[in-house]
UniProtKB/TrEMBL annotation:
GO cellular component, one term: plasma membrane
C2 domain sequence ranges: 1-154, 180-305
Native species: Reticulomyxa filosa
Name this protein carries in UniProt: Copine family member IX
GO molecular function list: calcium-dependent phospholipid binding
PANTHER family linked to this entry: C2 DOMAIN-CONTAINING PROTEIN, COPINE
Lineage, broadest ranks: Eukaryota, Sar, Rhizaria, Retaria, Foraminifera
One GO term of the biological process aspect: cellular response to calcium ion
InterPro entries recorded: C2_dom, C2_domain_sf, C2B_Copine, Copine, Copine_C
Amino acid sequence: MTQDPKSAGGDYKEKIEIFLSCQDLVSKDMFSKTDAFVVDSKTGKFEEIGRTETIKLRVTSSHYKKHMDILFQNLFFFNIFFFAVHVNERDEYNPSFGKSFVVDFAFEEEQEVRFDVYDQDKNNAKSLKGQDFIGCCNMTLGEIMHASGNLYIFLFNDVVILQMTRMLLHKGKSMKNGSTKMCSRLTARIEVVAKCGHEGIVITFGGEHLASMDFFGKSDPFLEIYRMTNTQPLLVYRTEKIDNTEKPVWKPITISSQELCNSDPDRSLLLRVLDWDSNGSHELIGEVKTTLNALRKNFNVELENGKKKGKKVGTLKVVEFRSTPFFSFLDYVMGGIDLSLMVAIDFTASNGKPSHSQSLHHLSAQGTQYQLALRTIANTVSCYDSDQRFPVWGFASKKIVHFFSINFLLVLCTPCVGNKGGKIPHGDVMHVFPLNGNDMNPEVRGVYGIEEAYLNALAKVELFGPTLFYPILKKAVTLQRWLIPTSNIKLNITLC
C-alpha cells in the first residue's frame, strides 16, 4: 500500500483563499473617501504587496450622506503575509472586499490572525499613524478550518466554504452602529484553492443598448463579477466606469481561473452591470448568471433587472476571450523538458584558506562545504539532464604555473574586457576559467566529475578576488545560446 506523502511526515500546507467583509461598521467621520488596507505580518514589519480600487460608500440620508473610510490591518503572528486593499461597497455600513488573498494553511502551526479596522483620515498614507482606529478582532486559521465556535459551513456544488464572524472590539469593548443598533463585526470566508486546472484568462467585456438610469444623459456603467455560493456571492472583480455611454467596452480583465471560479469552469458566476454614482449609491442596470465555459463561446446575452420585469435593459457580451494554461514543473518534466546544469565555483580569498577548518574550501572527511552543496543541488538537478555533461568554471583566483594546458594559456593571452587591448599577465586574477582546463569544452561527466575537477583545481590555484559575477554570467549566457536545441525544451540553470 502506497503511503500518502502528506501523512508521511514533514510540513503539509494547503493553499486557502480568504474573503473579507464587515457588517454594521461605526462611522468616525462626517465626510471622507473609502480607502482601505489589509496588512499581514508575523513580525509587525509591514511590506505592502497590492491594493485594489477605491470606491465611496453610501450611507443613509439620516447621517448626512457620510462616507466612511475603512482600513484593515490583518496580522499573522506565525506566517509572514502582507496585503493592502482599497475597499468598496454600495451598501451602507457593510463593505465587501473584491480583493481576496491566497495564503498557506499549515496544520501543524498556530496561525493567529488579527484584523484591525481603521477609518482612514489621510489619503495615500502608507503608515498607520494618523488613521482613526475603529476596532479589531482575533481568530486563528485553525478555528476557521475546523468546524468550531462561531463558524458556518456552506456546501455549494460540492465546494466547501468556511465562514467565521467576530465582533470588532475597541479597547476591549464592542461597538454599536448608531443607525442599525447592531454591533460592528468582521467576517472571514475561506475556500480551499483548487490544485489543478489553473489557467490565465484575458477577457474583454462590452455592453450594448444599456438602459439609462439617470434623468439626464446616459449611464456611467461599470461591471462587477461575483463567484456564486448558496449564500452571499463573493466579489472577485470590478471594472472601471465609463462615462455617459450605452455601448461600453471595458478594459481587458487579466485574471486567473483560480481567482475567477477556483478553477471550476462550471462554477456559477454573477455578472452585474451598474450605473456609477458619485455618492456611492450605484444603481443596478442588469445582471446575468453564467459560467467560465459559457464565456468562452460567443457570449452575448440579455441583462435582467428584477425591478423592471419585461423591460429591456441592454445586453452584455464578450468582445475578446483568451486563455493560457498554467503548467506545473511536473507538467514540463513529463513533457520532455531537459535541465542543463552549469556550475561556477567561487575561489575568492574571503572563503578562507583551505588549510583552516573554518574555510568553505577546507577538506574534511565529508568533503568541503562546496562539495556538500554540490551533492545536495547537483544530484537533484542532474536527474533531469539527459547527457549528464556539465560545464564547470571557477572565478576570482590566481593561476599557478603548469596547472592548465597550453591551449588554455593561449586563450588567456587574448585581450580581455576592460584591459583596452592589453594581455592578461601570467599569474593575474582569473575571473572565469574552466576547471577541466579546456576553454573550448568546459564540460565534465556526472556529478562525480564536477567534484573531481573542483578538487583538482583547488590544489592548483591561489584564492584571490574580487568577486565578480558578470564575467561568469556572460560566459554562461554565451554557452547556452550555442546549446539551444532544435526540438526539445531546455532550461539552463547556473549554480554559483
